[in-house]
Amino acid sequence: MSARPPLSEAQRRLLDRWRAAGERIVFTNGVFDLLHRGHVEYLAEARALGDRLVVGVNSDASVRRLGKGPERPLMAEADRASVLAALRSVDLVVGFDEDTPERLIRDVRPDVLAKGGDWATEAIVGREFVESCGGRVVSVPLRPGFSTTALIERLRTSRTSG
To answer: Which end of the chain is more exposed for a tag (fewer CB within 10 A), N or C?
Structure first.
């Protein structure tokens, strides 16, 4: 695991400016490998919960430790972050090396912590911290039929059956 700090000084200043302007900061996180429609709709819905959306992205080493498969991530962290940053709904992308985004969430101090509906609210990492600061935690429903793992499996199956 790297010892990189959760936020750069420039990112801290940006968050401070948003807070000073009274903007509500929403945080979510994930791998976001092979960005698809489900991701885009989820991020837009998360962004609608506030004024600014900060997205934490698992580092490549963190993804490998998640056990998503030996060939994951398919795209390097910098590439995944670049694609996310290009989305209209995303205001800031921050990578993290840890197995969970807890440290990053504590640094960002979001008003709203959003996570996909496949996570029970009580299991969402950072929930207790965000709620202790007066923030709220929202479980955003996932879009049926959209999953990176399922997409990879379909590609693998079509390649072997073709």
So the answer is: C
